[in-house]
Amino acid sequence: MSGTPQRTPVSLTVRPSTPALAPLIGAMGHAEGRFAHAAELALPTGGAQLLVNLDRDALTRTPLHGAGRSTGGAAVHGPCTGPAVIDPAQQRAVLWVAFRPGGLSPFLPVPVCEVRDELAGLDDLWGGDGAVLRERLLEAVAAGGPPAGLRTLETALLERSRTLAAPDPAVRRAAFLLDRGTPVAEVADRLGWTARRLTRRCAGHLGVPPKRYARVRRFQRLLRRVNAGQGPPDWAALAADCGYHDQAHLIHEFRALAGITPGAYAPRSPGEGNHVPLPG
Questions:
Q1: For residues 216 and 44, what is the distance between their CA atoms, to the nearest angstrom?
Q2: In whole angstroms, how far apart are CA 272 and each of 102, 105, 227?
Q3: Which of 21, 72, 82 is CA-nearest to residue 46?
Q4: What is the pLDDT along the chain (280 residues), one digit of tens a residue?
Q5: Could you count the other beta carbons within 10 Å of the beta carbon of residue 69?
Q6: Could you tell me the residue range of the domain that residue 132 belongs to?
Q7: Which of 161, 177, 212 marks a domain boundary?
Q8: pTM for this entry
């Protein structure tokens, strides 16, 4: 890595104040930062976000192996199953929403799997409402700062959720079990579903097939342990604790999901474990 990135971070994170949104949205916030590095890896979480770039009317995402995607400054970042390269300059001023598992589904006119590993512009997803949302948020932030912008965004999400179907509670239960390492076959049995039905429902509501979702969430459990630890990680012990067959299996999965080796993993900070600066 090319040194410690310099920045002037400012952030505000809140929970939705409207009870109707609490089952759908885990958190929302405003973040500002200035970074010295020109590119960074964004690691997969299996979750989805809504992003609004207040600094510039553009968002981009480039899979580590594949073609990039660009949209206007307001977009849904679908559930990701692999690493992507993003531009830190697009994080200078951002409003963001992190959806709970299955929580994005009520805000989309299509199954969530159709935005997997994609940026989807709100103008494409929501038509006129999506096309003007960024301007509404810019006006709100200019008048009342980030809290006003978040209140405006919350109102827009509440209005949108009333027009679409509610999330599937059984899929949320499946996500809960998969997140804790329950085998896929056991999850299907607990729900009284066939494996095919579980796959179909997870793809439609989580955006990711259950086996892939379980892999990504196991990877996230690993990253949390690494970033909470003191000193060099004991990869063999972490492999056993996080559900990998052995250290070789952990290294293979790390390469597949992060695009780098465990030894090369150096996030922006322990609290930003899914953002890894790339050398210039």
A1: 7
A2: 23, 26, 9
A3: 82
A4: 344 445 556 788 898 888 889 989 999 999 998 888 899 999 999 999 999 999 999 999 998 877 788 999 999 999 999 999 999 999 999 999 999 999 999 899 899 999 999 999 999 999 999 999 999 999 999 999 999 999 999 999 998 877 666 678 999 999 999 999 999 999 999 999 999 999 999 999 999 999 999 999 999 999 999 999 888 999 999 999 999 999 999 999 999 999 999 999 999 988 899 999 998 7
A5: 18
A6: 10-161
A7: 161
A8: 0.91
Residue 4 belongs to a domain: no
Last residue of a domain, one of 138, 161, 184: 161
Helix pair 235-242, 247-258: axis angle to 10 deg: 80
Instruction: Map tokens 């809960």 to a residue.
Output: 176
Q: Concatenate the DSSP letters of all residues of 89-132 into one string.
A: GGGSEEEEEEEPTTTSGGG-SS-GGGGTT-EEEHHHHHTHHHHH
Helices (H), the chain: 122-126, 128-161, 169-179, 184-191, 195-205, 210-228, 235-242, 247-258
Edge-to-edge order in the sheet of strand 74-77: 10-14, 25-32, 93-99, 49-53, 74-77, 119-121
Residue written as token pair 């405006």: 152
Residue 25, in any domain of the structure: yes
Asked if residue 5 belongs to a domain, the reply is no
Q: At 19, which amino acid appears?
A: P
3 state SS of 183: coil
Report if residue 55 sits inside a domain.
yes
Total of domains in the chain: 2
